[in-house]
Design a protein that fits this description.
Four Helix Bundle (Hemerythrin (Met), subunit A), 4 helices, globular
Length: 102
């Protein structure tokens, strides 16, 4: 998985490094969360490097699309296991996607 930080040869620390407390203890969801952070870090690096608008837009589009799939996967798992606060969690996901689109 190549990131803008890697491609640019950046030695800067990443904007949002993975921290252990982000882990849910579910391999697939944790991999998804790490991927989300990677895209967020790409976006931050592209903004810092003042990349062209079309590059930044492409990263935002990738973040929105990946988030949709990740949120859907997370919600399906929560539903399957009877997560008691699923409705509120779905609302958080919906609000997050709306902010990303805006």
């Amino acid at each position: 998985m190549s990131t803008i930080l890697q491609e640019a040869g950046s030695t800067k620390s990443v904007f949002m490094p993975w921290k252990g407390h982000y882990s849910l203890g579910h391999h697939e969801l944790d991999v998804g969360r790490k991927r989300l952070l990677s895209i967020i870090n790409d976006l931050h690096a592209s903004l810092e490097a003042k990349y062209e608008d079309k590059v930044i837009k492409a990263i935002i589009d990738r973040l929105v699309q990946y988030s949709k799939g990740h949120f859907r996967q997370e919600e399906e798992l929560m539903k399957r296991h009877g997560f008691p606060d699923l409705a509120n969690h779905r609302l958080l996901h919906s609000r997050s996607l709306k902010r990303l689109r805006n």
